[in-house]
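Input.
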Amino acid sequence: MKIATYNVNGIRSRLPNLLEWLEREAPDIACLQELKAVDEGFPIGAINDAGYGALWAGQASWNGVAILAKGVDPVESRRGLPGDAKDTQSRYLEAMAHGILVGCLYLPNGNPWPGPKFEYKLAWFERFLRHAQRLLDSGQPVVLAGDYNVVPTDEDIYDPTHWRRDALLQPESRDAYARLLAQGWVDALRKRHPDERIYTFWDYFRQHWPRDRGLRIDHVLLAPPLAGRLKDANVDRWVRDQPKASDHAPTWVELSASAPKRTVAKKAPAKKAAPKKAPAKKAASRRSRTEA
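Output.
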């Protein structure tokens, strides 16, 4: 089971890249962000032709999220993050596909910092934390995948020096992400590669992609029922090298069909006691029966 997240940065302009990626990598479930298209502009025909069912929540020019499932139609369970009826930005979509509950999110960027956009980011994050806890408490196999717009640590960026005033690196942003993990979610990419510099985003400025000056802001978090099934996790960097590419590359996890069985040490068999010898018969017994 392969589950991926990919900020396409405009689904209409990146559609050829998206379709090539789906054909080549064939994820079972794909979460998309930054569709930048209204619902009517979502290319469902091309997605279906590629072998995927889809749910999406569009928005003109900004935001927008979608969940694609190979060979099936995802079953929607939630549209929009709960907790603020006034928030109409298309940033969260939740559905069941292939036996897994998937939350696809596009967390607010928060720039410029400080300011109202950063305050909105933190408020959105708090609502997300409350919802994530409820999902965790349900005991279901849940994946929360998307563009979190948070660089968790200085090890997740090529050089934090020039980004200290960016909303992605602020202590409040990092603290919210750390509290999310403290609930029990597993950061799959970091779990699989604990000591490596791995990036998922390279902006378009100053030749950051050719120089591999990236950031890790796209994350796939696993609930405990799925964490034990983690086989692999990585980034499809080749997608970022395509013509007219998004500034993000797809990030994915691979899960085993079921959790590996725990091996229990077998106890050594108890030694059998040596059989007792039957007492010797009296010599006269047979003779006495004969003479009777």
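Residues 263-268, 270-292 have pLDDT under 50 and may be disordered.
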